[in-house]
Amino acid sequence: MKKANTATRSAAATPILAALAYARKGYPVLPLSPGEKRPHPRLVPHGLKEASRDPRALEAWWTREPLAGVGILPPR
After folding, report:
1. Nearest Cα residue to 70 out of 2, 14, 4, 9
2. 0.85 cut: is pTM over it?
């Protein structure tokens, strides 16, 4: 059985680290409501249109809601 890459496991250890890792790979990211699969209405009131790869935006979102899930869109 193949072992998971330690760096990959570490990046997924917290939502912000996972979000930043996806953004570095070119995926637009947005915060999801904790425990749900919908955009967080307080952080991204315009939903999918606000997905971003900007680390400053991601840091701001997950600073306000550290338990937000991570939503990704296909890269453009």
Report:
1. 14
2. no
Q: Is the dihedral of CA 67, 34, 52, 10 positive or negative?
A: positive
Are 26 and 73 in contact by the 8 Å Cβ rule? The answer is no
Measured in whole angstroms, how far is the alpha carbon of residue 30 from the centre of its chain? 5
Phi, psi of 63 (to 5 degrees): -70, -40
Per-residue pLDDT tens digits for 6-45: 444 555 689 999 999 999 999 999 999 999 999 999 999 9
Alpha helices in 1-76 (DSSP H): 6-11, 15-24, 55-64
Q: Pull the structure tokens for residue 66.
A: 């550290």
